[in-house]
Structure formats: C-alpha cells, structure tokens
Amino acid sequence: MGQEAINQFKALMDQVDEPLRRTFQNVHQGYIVETLERFLKARDWNVPRAYKMLIDSLHWRLENGIDDILSKPIVPTNFYRGVRDSQLIGVSGYTREGLPVFAIGVGLSTFDKASVNYYVQSHIQINEYRDRVILPAATKKNGRYIGKCVKVLDMSGLKLSALNQLKLLTAISTIDDLNYPEKTITYYIVNVPYIFSACWKVVKPLLQERTKLKVQVLQGCGRDELLKIMDYSALPHFCRREGPGSSRRSDNATEDCFSLDHPFHKELYSYIKKQSGILEPTRPMKHGSVHVGVPADPKKAEFCRTLETEWRKFQNQDEHIRLHDIVISD
C-alpha cells in the first residue's frame, strides 16, 4: 500500500512543470521519496489529498519568495537581536541518533520587539536553514538520511496573557502544518505549569492520533528522560537544572541556545548575510520585513477557537480567585 501510494504520487510529481519543479527541488533536497512520504503521512496516505497539499505548498513558496528567504537578513543586527530575545528558539545539540535538538521557550517568548511579519520571517528562515543546511549536514555526518528533528518546548513562565500571542502562534503553526509536515519526530514538553496541564486535558482529545503520539509531557525539566536519547552537552539550558530559576537564561552564550551569540545563531545569521551578498552583491541590505501569506487551515482555526475558549475560562477563574483573595484580605 505504502509503496504503491509513493509510486502514484511520484508519477504525478514527474508531470509538474517549471517553476514548480524547481521549487520542489529546494523542498526535497535530493530525497524525493522521503519528501513524498512526509506529505502522504500528513494526509493519511491519500494520494490525491497529499498531491494537492504539496502543490499548494509549492505555489505558496513561489508566491511568497520562500526559495530566496535565506538571502533576506533581518537588519540591523541590534534589531534582529531583539527578535531573538523575544522569540526564543535555537538548536542545543543533537540526539545520539544524529537528530538536531530544537529548543523553544514557549512560556518566556514575548513577541513584543517587532511586528508579526518579522517573527514569521524569522521562523521560516530557521525552517529553511534546518532543511537546506542542518539536516543535509547531519545526513552527511551520520552516513544515512536524517530528515527530522526533535523539539523540546519549555513552558516555564507561561501566563494567561499568552492568549494575546495566539494569532501569531496560530499563523506559525499553520505554516508548519501545511508546508513543513512531519519534520518533527517528537515534541518533549518540560517545566509544565498548572495552566498548561489543565488546558492539555482539553486539547489532547482534539488532536489527531498521529500528533498525540508525538507529544511527551515530561516531569520537571525532563532532564532524566532526555538523557536517554542525548548527551548532557546537547540538553537545552532549561533542562539542566531543577527548581527555582531553572528556566533562567544562561549567562554563558555557548550554553544559551536562544542567544544571538550562540554558535547556531551566529552561523545562521552569517549564512543569511552571505547569501544576501551572493544574490544582490551590489545592493545595500534593505530594512523591512518579508511579508509572507499564511495559508488558510479550517481545522487549525477550529482548534484554536477551542483553545481560546478554554484559555479564557482559566483567565476568568484566575480573576475570580484574585478578587476573592482581595475580599478575604480586606
């Protein structure tokens, strides 16, 4: 069944003409079958639906200049540092199987230093750098195809005010779901506060079984569980210590993978600036964000409406508790 679906899908893609064929090459990076498998899995191995998903994604790439997005740095550097300090993401190392470990500071990201467009641009650039540079390098180093990563999501500091960021997070999530499917093998969630635990009970039943199997909510900072698949040196800084202050940004730039001074971000930014010089060697770098259209996903919209409803319930409960405390203290 699987091989037959792949053969059918490949036959359809062989008929695709330029410029879709060229942008498809940037997606598969020489691993056509593995790429087709990702889109098939995302559509439950339904070939027509997977084909439509991939074609829609290729059109999205063309319409939004995604193939060239790694040549469009966010400048000046100080402004980009603000983006990095408020959109916490980085690579802390690799698992013992060679998969890159992406660390994401969900709870402490504020997204308040730039417009939405810059954050979307930054996120897509990291996706493209992962797919065109990090994963091919990991494949070469390990002598076998590596096309996925693991993500460790730090929920430290998660507040009810995070509801204000839901629109942006939904846009980013929708872009990932529709254009970068099946790139993450496991999501490890750590440093979980009560508010997340309560919402997770509501959200989990709404997820597809395939997605639920990828999510693992770990106790505390998750260090002991994560050390089963990676060395200590690959742990995100927020997984290295338990207790108060465990999520504090590390003073050591080589440990804090969120920092622009971390090797990952220094290499990424250097790569983007170099690509910019190759593409437009005689033109100065332009200020301003890249505007990327966000594809519509009705299922994602419904999911987020449910999440927002539950989030507001906890917000109302929290306000009621605080009002009760004031009355008691009077």
From TrEMBL:
InterPro entries associated with the record: CRAL-TRIO_dom, CRAL-TRIO_dom_sf, CRAL/TRIO_N_dom, CRAL/TRIO_N_dom_sf
Pfam families attached to this UniProt entry: CRAL_TRIO, CRAL_TRIO_N
CRAL-TRIO domain mapped to chain residues: 76-236
Protein name: CRAL-TRIO lipid binding domain-containing protein
Organism, scientific name: Artemisia annua
